[in-house]
Amino acid sequence: MDKIQEEIIEEFSMFEDWLDKYDYLISLSDSLPAIGEEHRTEQYLIEGCQSRVWVDAELKEGRMHYRADSDAIITKGIISLLIRVLDGRTPEEVLATDLYFIDRIGLGENLSPTRANGLLSMIKQMRLYALAFQAKEN
Fold first, then answer.
1. What is each CA distance from 28 to 16, 43, 122, 130, in whole angstroms?
2. In a 10 Å sphere around its CB, with 0-12 CB exposed, 13-18 middle and 19+ buried, how is residue 40 labelled?
3. Which of 52, 65, 95, 129 has its Cα between 20 and 30 A from that of 85?
4. pLDDT tens for residues 72-103?
């Protein structure tokens, strides 16, 4: 997983200005796998986000697979980064991953307090899915 985080850090290092980084985040929103309308419901809505964010997960062959959507393009870019790092990992790996890329690219310090809170809520929900699937396996 660290390889993916290092790739993200490298990609963001190409931009010096945070406006350019925001533009890049917006462009990443296009790479987010589509989520079905049946998952754009209150059940999948993340609490604590300024924008509306829906996250769903499934476990296939012992690996986590996430789908998400948001009504805000910057938030879609952020969740696409989280999915890029955590998707395809075992529940144990998801729970153990230090998401250090967030600080290394300066994301945490350049988000508004409400977006930063939303980022933490997205991470928490993704880890809760992993915890639930881990408990089912044991």
1. 18, 25, 17, 24
2. middle
3. 52
4. 898 999 999 999 999 999 999 999 999 999 99
> Is 128 annotated in the active site?
no
| Three-class DSSP category at 12 | helix
Rounded Cα gap, residues 30 and 22, in angstroms: 14
Q: Is the pTM above the cut of 0.70?
A: yes
> For tokens 């809760």, what's the residue?
128
- Distance between CA atoms of 121 and 83, rounded to whole angstroms? 14
What average pLDDT does range 4-8 have in this prediction? 97
Alpha helix segments (H runs only) across 14-112: 18-28, 73-86, 91-96, 101-104
Q: Choose the catalytic residue: 46, 49, 78, 102.
A: 49
Q: How far apart are CA 9 and CA 11, in angstroms?
A: 5
Whole-angstrom CA distances from 81 to 54, 68, 107, 136 are: 15, 11, 11, 27
